[in-house]
Amino acid sequence: MKFGVLQFPGSCDEVDALHAARRVGEAELLWHAERDLRGVDAVIVPGGFSYGDYLRAGAIARFAPAMESVIEFAQAGGLVLGICNGFQVLCEARLLPGALLGNASRRFTFRQVELEVVQPDTAFTRVCEPRSGSDELRAHLSIPAKHSWGRYYADDRTLDELEDNGQVLLRYASGHNINGSLRDIAGVRNAAGNVFGLMPHPEHAVDPLTGSTDGLCIFESMRLAVEGAHV
Amino acid sequence: MRARVLIRPKAGILDPQGAAVERALPALGFSGVANVHVGRLVELDVADASQLGDMCEKLLANPLVEDYEILTGE
After folding, report:
1. Spatial distance between the Cα atoms of B44 and A50, rounded to a whole number of angstroms
2. Low-confidence spans in chain A with pLDDT less than 50
3. Distance in angstroms between the alpha carbons of the first and the last residue of chain B
4. How high is the pLDDT of residue A136?
5. B41 touching A, CB under 8 A?
6. Best of A155, A158, A159, A188 to mutate (most B CBs within 10 Å, chain B)
7. Is the ipTM value over 0.85, yes or no?
8. N or C: which end of chain B has fewer CB within 10 A?
């Protein structure tokens, strides 16, 4: 199982994404200017400020040569995870519905957030389980979020469809919606189920040294989804 | 040809930047201010103005959340 982590000029979380992916499999960086995805089994579009995000977050990165290949890879059913700026890039590329707008607070916000796993049986969440000893029915993840442009928006009809189709995988727990996202949405997948984006950073929560390992279940779920497909 | 593209948040979408300006103006003594929205202006020289719509759809605006208006002059 090999992950490919895209690297744009201005990416800043690609090393943590590599580190997280290497906890569950192999991983290598994929440079934005190259079309060759080097046979990876899954792609991670990491956080940062691709091409400076000078126009709109993700607006220019979506046209990178590597993204053309990622779009083909996704359309062929390949697993793609977008984190923070990566989520913005996937929305701009129309691989995911909706858009990320400026935080309602107008502030850059950086804090640990509590997320509820709304859909436990997906390629990205299947090993996320409720904490042992808790009486929660759903898994909760405590992972960091840090962004200025994280307010998830889609029109009401799209939001209804996302909910009806089980495409909302993660919500901010009560009191943790730091950006004003509609319906507390923190992460959504596409209709086919192979592309997922979220604003918080699971790759920053894979080592007890930094306080939480709750992010690991996202990467481990992807590994199982890929290796299951190979059996 | 010189062209201007005005880009605005779509009606009904929370516009925190506009709201901040709307709160600030009365604090400075300006009264009767309402419906403030803050957008962007893109000015550019183009050889073929018929491409402006496509430029807006693909790059300059995000049509899911923004409306755009193309103004061309001399």
Report:
1. 23
2. none
3. 6
4. 80
5. no
6. A155
7. yes
8. C
Q: Is B59 on the interface with A (CB under 8 A)?
A: yes
CB-CB neighbors (< 8 A) of A157 in chain B: none
Measured between alpha carbons, how far is A79 from A123 in angstroms, rounded to an integer?
8
Separation between Cα atoms, residue A142 and residue A173, nearest integer Å: 10
Structural contact between residues A197 and A188, judged by C-beta atoms closer than 8 angstroms: yes
For residue A102, give how far its alpha carbon lies from the nearest alpha carbon of chain B (Å): 8
**pLDDT tens digits, one per residue of B1-26:** 999 999 999 999 999 999 999 999 99
CB contact under 8 A, A55 and B60: yes
Select from A53, A54, A55, A148 the residue whose CB has the most chain B CBs within 10 Å, as the one to mutate to test that interface.
Answer: A55
**Shortest Cα–Cα distance, B1 to chain A (Å):** 22
Q: For B54-72, what is the mean pLDDT?
A: 96
Residues of chain A in contact with residue B60, where contact means CB-CB under 8 angstroms, are: 55
**How many helical (H) and strand (E) elements, i.e. helices and strands, does chain A have?**
5, 11
HSE of A4, CA atoms in CB hemisphere, 13 A? 23
What is the b/e burial string over A64-89, where b = at least 16 CB atoms within 10 angstroms of the residue's CB? Answer: bebbebbbebbeeebbbbbbbbbbbb
With 90 as the cut, is the pLDDT of residue B74 above it?
no
CB distance A153–B13 less than 8 Å? yes
pTM recorded for the entire structure: 0.94
Query: What count of residues does chain A have?
Result: 231
3-state secondary structure of A63: helix
Active-site amino acid positions of A: 84, 201, 203
pLDDT at B43 exceeding the cut of 60: yes
**Of B36, B42, B32, nearest in space to B9 by CA:** B36
Over residues A87-135, the pLDDT tens digits come to 999 999 999 999 999 999 999 999 999 999 999 999 999 999 988 887 7
